[in-house]
Amino acid sequence: MPNLEIDVEPGKCDEAYAYIADYQWQGLYVYGFAEDRMWRFKHNFFSFEPRYGRFNIAGQQFVWNDGLFSLAVGALNKDTGDRPVYLHAMAAISEIVVPNSVLKNETLARSGEDHYAERFRHLGSRGPNTHSSSHAFDEKTGVLFYAEVNRNAIGCWNNAQEFHAENHGIVHLDNENMIYPADLTVSENGPA
């Protein structure tokens, strides 16, 4: 379990959902706190992208086939009442998005992939060498931050822009002190 993302509305902790990435079996598990049950989604988007399985981290070269690795809940869409859930595989440079209402729907998950596959959408590519171990969304700024393991960097994308490689930036890159950034958290209070 490389990533656990909690989807909760203020004051409604008993109605929270936990989204759990399964990179080995390429699934997405959802635990509903109110339901006290777990269900699973599967989709081809959860698989690794074979042409992006090669890694070079601090001179160490290797191949991974890790699938779905990270999930991040975005800002509330007041028109639909949904939040986008951004997700990606580790051995990939693509970002996928799905409305959280899809993930919260246990009946839909149990009805099979044919009933929900089209709700998962390929958002686009982050660009070369942007393999990401984790990402986090900053609701105040609308920025999605990525821990980019191949570049030893923290990358970013503002969701007000189109999701294209040229609209992604690097917040910080450090080839000596930040080798393989594995985890990422957005703090409301700024740096500690």
TrEMBL record:
InterPro entries with a match to the protein in the record: 6-blade_b-propeller_TolB-like, MRJP/yellow-related
Principal subcellular localisation of the protein: secreted
Which Pfam families does this one have?
MRJP (PF03022)
Please give an example of a GO cellular component term from this record. Answer: extracellular region
Q: Does the keyword Transmembrane helix apply?
A: no
Superkingdom, taxonomy of origin: Eukaryota
Compartments, as annotated in UniProt:
Secreted
Annotated keywords: Secreted, Signal
Signal peptide feature range: none
Family of the protein in this entry = Belongs to the major royal jelly protein family.
Name the UniProt record assigns to this protein: Protein yellow
From which source organism is this entry? Culex pipiens
Ranked from the top, the taxonomy reads: Eukaryota, Metazoa, Ecdysozoa, Arthropoda, Hexapoda
